[in-house]
Structures are given as C-alpha cells and as structure tokens.
Amino acid sequence: MFRTVVISLLITISTAAQIRIQSFDPAAKTWIHRGHTLSNGDILIGGQTEAGLFPLVNAFQPKHASSGLRRTRDGGRTWEDAQRPVPTPLRLIADSTDPAVLYALDANALYRTTDSAETWTRILSEQPLDVQTGTLEPTSLFVLTAGELLSSPDRGDTWTRRPLPELPNPRFSRIALDPFTRSTLYACGLSGLYRTTGAAWSPVPIVAPAFACYSIYFDPGKAGVSYVAAIPPSNGAFFRSTDGMATWTRLNGVRASTLGLDPLHSGVLYGFSPGFPAVMSTDYGDTWKDIPANPVSGSIAIIPGEPSTIVYPGALSYDGGLTWSLGTLSNVTACRAAPGAAYMLIAPQMDGFVARLAPSGEIRFSTILGGSYRDYVTSVASDDRGNLYAAGYTVSDNFPTTPGVVQRRFIPAFSNGFIAKFDPTGALIWSTMTRAHIEAIAVDRDHSVVFLS
Q: What is the arithmetic mean of pLDDT over 126-139?
C-alpha cells in the first residue's frame, strides 16, 4: 500500500556514511544520497554509481545494465549481452575473416575468444598497445608492446619476438598490415611512419619528417591506396597515397579525427570527431558530405554487406550511410565489426545502488539497482520486520520490476519514480515504478510505504 503526503525534507548524510564511502569505492565514482541506521546498528545506504568495479555482495543485480560487451548478429537491429574477459577491457580487435574470433586488450594483457565472446582465453601477459590480424593469412597476429613487436602464426598460441625500428627513443603506438601483401608491416607514432617487409625497417616520409603518424588505413579494393592521420604540433591532417606511399596528397574538407573504410566498397570513407556531425566520402576522400549521425565517442564499426551497415555510437545506417536511425546504445567506448557481426563495449552509466554495511564497515550485501540508462536511489528505509526499502527515480525504460506491482512499464516522460523492497539479506521482494519522481520514503506501523514526490 502506498500513501502520498506532502512534507518538507532536509537531506543529510551522516559523518559515518561519508567515511564509509572512502572504503566502499576507492575509485570515487560512487555517491551516497541517503543513509539509514537499522535497529541492530547496521547502516543501509543508497545512491548512484558508475564504478565499473563497484563492490557487489549477494547482489540480485550483479552488474550494470548498461555496461559490458554487446553483440549483434543481424546488422545492428538487435543487440545481446556477451561475455567480457575482464571487468574493464579497453579495446576490441575483430578478426578479418571469422566473426566468432575477437580480441580484447586491457592495460596488462591480451585476450581471445573463438566462440563469439562466450568464453575467453588470456593469450599474452604483457601490455599491448595495438593489435593487428592478417587478411591473406587470417590466423596471423601482430602485437605492439612498449618495447618490441610480437608475431604469432596461430592466433596467439605461440609467439615470436621481432625488433622495432632502431631509434634512440622509439615511440610507436599503432601498427598496420598491408592487406595486399603477406609481409609488409607498418609502425607509426610520434617517431613517424616506418615499414618493413622482413627484418629491416625503413622510414616512410609523409610530408615532412616533423609529422607524427597516428593511424594508418588501407583501401580494401585498390592496392597502393592508403591514408594516414599525420599530426604536427599545431595542426592535424589526413593524407592519401595512391602509389604505395611514394607520394602523398592532403585531403581537404574532412572534419574528422578518425576514419572508417567500408571493407567491401573501394573509395568509401566515413569520418568523425566526437561532438560534430559525421562525414562521408565516396570518391577516396576528394569530397565530403555531412551525414545525420552525431557520434558520442571514438569508434565506428562497418559490417560488410550489400549495402554495408554502419554502426556509430548512438546512430545506425542499414544502407551504407544513405539514411540513419538513432541507436539505442549510449556510452560506447569501443566498436568493432567482423563479417556478419559487430561488438560494442559499453561503459557503465549512472545506476542506483543499495548496500547494507555492518558497524565495522563489512558489506553484508550490495546490489546495483537500475536499467540501461540513468537511475538514482534518493531514499532508503526499513520496517520493524527487518525488510529494507529503496526509492528514487529513473529514465531507464527497462528498470527491473516484478509481476503484480502498481506499474511495471516506463511511462514516457523525463523520468519515472521507483520503489523496491528487499528482505534483510538483500533478496528482492518486489519492485515497482511510479509516475512520480520520488525524493523520500518512510514505512508506517501498518507497513505501508509513504513517499514524497
């Protein structure tokens, strides 16, 4: 039973609660909005968190609804959860021929899946800066580390160490394989652009030696056509070569920090900078036009097809960029495509949380409470039977609710309220949404929930 009252409310957070948060989330990405002392001295707290490693104990919702690895097998029309190798992978690298093979790297290791991100194997325990897979030899794999290059003929089962260009202070951040040869490899970074076809490396001038090379792209259908992002201290630029990097032409009119090349259609490029409309070229970068996509992060995935499907964070095109629809995924940190599939890494959004702490600070239970967008726990309470309550507001259309409650579905509005009831151990008893944004709750002697909205 719910009873609505209008009262004045001053929200305070006890000194104890402020102290607990330092040990509860050392990453400082968690905020306590309300604390409540239980009859046995335990502390019930609620608030919001975006911490990827939020401490979860006996949780009914053991992860952020908006975080993790997402996978599509139908061109981006539907997305499903996949497994991550570690809580916070940094980048994804798709195999060039097999959609079931994917690589993920974090700051300490490289991981591989061969079953579409159902299970993962750690294949390298060194810090990888960049990873490239082969096209003519699909099982070949190259990894750039801080001091050397590693190659594998069998997707990371065995490794051979290879030297980088012999420079006094080599600074490379990217590697790339020429898709039309089996052995031509490039390394680029603040040290410039270098090429090898075996053991020896040679410099590749872009415009002037002062230009640093930050990325390399190869046209999929025309040998000898390549692009580089070359950035001097004060001005960034993209350059194109049509003669195997012998000469370069600067591309004009491209407002982008990253390029994506259609893997099936020669000369088709997509460019973007976060915060600006995306651009597209169908003539190898000679001319560019705005497209109705406004990416929110630095990734693009192109699923090969006739036409290809373009996946930006927040926007999708099923016809090669001619028309666009808004995507349902936000907060995307990485996006990679393989033949017939695409994968996205989703960073945690702001979810609500509820936690019960012993007087010593031990976590008795803690759980995420939220959907795929933003959720806020603004109030917590308890009754004389030891049951626990949390309330707040949400803008997630998939906030978790239970059958038989007042409101199971999100009613389109800026936000909906919610109330959830837990038993003393943290097991969810019921959860409902409300039309009203809820700021505070209490439980009366009849065990009715009274809330302020």
A: 85
Model confidence band, residue 23 (pLDDT cutoffs 50, 70, 90): very low
The DSSP secondary-structure symbol of 426 reads: S
The answer, as to whether pTM is greater than 0.85, is no
3-state secondary structure of 236: coil
What pLDDT, on a 0 to 100 scale, did the predictor assign at position 4?
37
Q: Which parts of 273-362 are beta strand (E)?
A: 278-281, 289-291, 301-303, 309-312, 315-317, 325-326, 332-338, 341-346, 351-357
Category of 304 on φ-ψ map: left (φ > 0), alpha (ψ -120 to 50) or beta: beta
Helix (H, G, I), strand (E, B) or coil at 341: strand
| Residues in CB range of 265: below 8 A, 6 or more apart | 220, 221, 308, 320
Residue 15: partners with Cβ closer than 8 Å, 6 or more residues away: none
User: What are the C-alpha distances in Å from 5 to residues 27, 46, 394?
Assistant: 38, 22, 21
Other CB atoms closer than 10 Å to residue 443's CB: what's the count?
A: 19
pLDDT in tens, 169-215: 888 989 999 989 878 999 998 888 999 987 789 999 876 655 788 88
Nearest to 46 by CA among 11, 93, 97: 11
- Using CA atoms, how far apart are residues 230 and 405, in angstroms rounded to an integer? 58
Q: Report the C-alpha dihedral over residues 19, 22, 23, 29, rounded to 10 degrees.
A: 140
User: What's the CA gap between 268 and 260, in Å, rounded?
Assistant: 9
228: CB partners within 8 A, 6+ apart = 188, 193, 206, 213, 214, 215, 216, 217, 238, 239, 241, 248
First-last CA distance in the chain: 16
